[in-house]
Amino acid sequence: MEIKVLGTGCPKCKMTFKHVQKALEKLKLEDVNVMKVESMEDIMKYNILSTPALVIDEEIMVIGRVATVKEIVKLIEDKQ
């Protein structure tokens, strides 16, 4: 599984990344590749207009808001 947090490094983007890490800890998952995508050029490839955005296995799951840890846990469980 690959999870990407799209954002230029704003506080909401950093919080989203922390929430992803906490969700993975709760699920006891270690074999997940988590990346921060901060380049505007790379972010624009996803055709989104606001950040942060959460992408799981190249599927955009959340756009323009900070997802809660609980929400991220559910999204990851649904993708497994």
Q: What key attributes describe this structure?
A:
24% strand, 80 residues, 4-stranded mixed beta sheet, alpha+beta, Glutaredoxin, 41% helix, 4 strands, 3 helices
Structural topology:
Elements: E1 2-6, H1 11-27, E2 33-37, H2 40-44, E3 53-56, E4 59-63, H3 69-79
Parallel strand pairs: 1-2
Antiparallel strand pairs: 1-3, 3-4
Helix pairs in contact: 1-3
Global geometry: globular
CATH domain class name = Alpha Beta
Order of helices and strands: EHEHEEH
User: Could you say which structural class the secondary elements and strand pairing correspond to?
Assistant: alpha+beta
Helix content: 40-55%
Q: Supply Rg.
A: 11 Å
Largest sheet: 4 strands, mixed
Distance between the termini: 8 Å
Corresponding CATH superfamily: Glutaredoxin
Spatial strand sequence of the major β-sheet: 2-1-3-4
CATH architecture: 3-Layer(aba) Sandwich
| Mean pLDDT level | 96
What's the helix count? 3
Low-confidence stretches: none
Estimate what percentage of residues fall within beta strands: 15-25%
Total separate domains: 1
E-strand count? 4
